[in-house]
Design goal:
It is a single chain. By secondary structure, the protein is an alpha/beta fold. The protein has a single domain (2-214), classed as P-loop containing nucleotide triphosphate hydrolases (Rossmann fold, 3-Layer(aba) Sandwich), CATH 3.40.50.300. Helices cover 50% and strands 14% of the residues. It has 9 helices and 8 strands. The chain has helices at residues 11-22, 29-42, 53-64, 89-98, 102-113, 128-132, 146-159, 166-182, 204-218, and strands at 2-4, 25-28, 68-71, 74-77, 80-81, 121-125, 139-143, 195-198. The strands form 2 sheets. It has a 5-stranded parallel β-sheet. It has a 3-stranded antiparallel β-sheet with strand order 3-4-5, with no helix packed on it. A hairpin with a 2-residue loop joins strand 4 and strand 5 (80-81). Helix 1 crosses helix 9, helix 2 (29-42) crosses helix 4 and helix 4 packs parallel to helix 8. It starts with a strand and ends with a helix. The structure holds cytidine-5'-diphosphate (2 copies). One cytidine-5'-diphosphate binds at residues 7-8, 12, 29-30, 33-34, 92, 95-96, 99, 125-127, 176, 180.
Length: 222
């Protein structure tokens, strides 16, 4: 099952709970882009860097050599737990900037597909239904208004101990939406056969419930 959508629409939290309810594996594809972004930032890349051809090759190399392990809540990059580091807004913003690169996207493609083993998979991101898993039995495009999403991200960042303010968050979110939607490679838009679900007025658990019902209707077996 694929759950795509814009930033802070809730796709990660929903996908994780749905995967647990179904006993499926879970892929947060944004983490892969964030891990490469973290390496770029650590290598000193500026936020406004214009990507050269060599930069794109460097990104693809980082992606190909990505030594990552997921252990519960931990995200181990070369054995270092970077679970918190990759959640910083500047990492999300850099992830969105490098994600325009076709070279990087294709370097990450097979790694994402390798998660589809065993009973089933719930994958969340931007292009799970449109590019990475075009034959998925259920595709959902999760939306929520920009204001609701900024507030959700605000609460989430504060709970993790980061500082945040709503004005900057709303601006970052609108910029990121525009960049993700307007790029030529795998732009943020619902797959043709995706169901659009607006969670603006739903709690997390209500959203999970709707998704599980959609899955039962579409695919059965639960
Ligand atoms: O959680 P949030 O939606 O803020 O971000 P994320 O899913 O972790 O993704 C970070 C950035 O990586 C996004 O803004 C996208 O530009 C990019 N991304 C992508 O291009 N394709 C994916 N399948 C997942 C993420
Ligand atoms: O992965 P994405 O960036 O789309 O968002 P997320 O990190 O899964 O969700 C952002 C925050 O919104 C989390 O703290 C979720 O628990 C929360 N959320 C919510 O309050 N109501 C929903 N219907 C869905 C998510």
């Amino acid at each position: 099952m694929c759950i795509d959508g814009p930033t802070a629409s809730g796709k990660g939290a929903v996908a994780k709970l749905v995967s647990e309810a179904l006993g499926f594996a879970y892929l947060d594809s944004g983490v892969l882009y964030r891990l490469v972004a973290l390496q770029a930032l650590r290598a000193g890349w500026a936020d406004d860097r214009l990507l050269s051809e060599n930069d794109e090759l460097q990104l693809a190399q980082w992606a190909a050599e990505l030594d990552v392990r997921f252990d519960g809540e931990q995200v181990l990059l070369n054995s270092e737990n970077v679970a918190l580091d990759i959640r910083e807004e500047r990492v999300g913003n850099m992830a969105s900037k490098i994600a325009v690169s076709a070279t990087l996207r294709s370097a990450l493609l097979e790694r994402q597909r390798a998660f589809a083993q065993g009973a089933g998979l719930v994958a969340d991101g931007r292009d799970m239904g449109s590019v990475v898993f075009p034959d998925a039995p259920l595709k959902i495009f999760l939306q929520a208004s920009a204001e609701v999403r900024a507030e959700r991200r605000y609460k989430q960042l504060i709970a993790k101990g980061f500082s945040a303010n709503m004005v900057d968050l709303l601006q970052d979110l609108n910029e990121r939406d525009a960049r993700d939607a307007n790029r030529t490679q795998a732009p943020l838009k619902p797959a043709q056969d995706a169901y659009i679900l607006d969670s603006s007025d739903l709690t997390l658990l209500e959203t999970v419930d709707v998704v599980l019902k959609m899955y039962a209707q579409q695919v059965g077996n639960i």
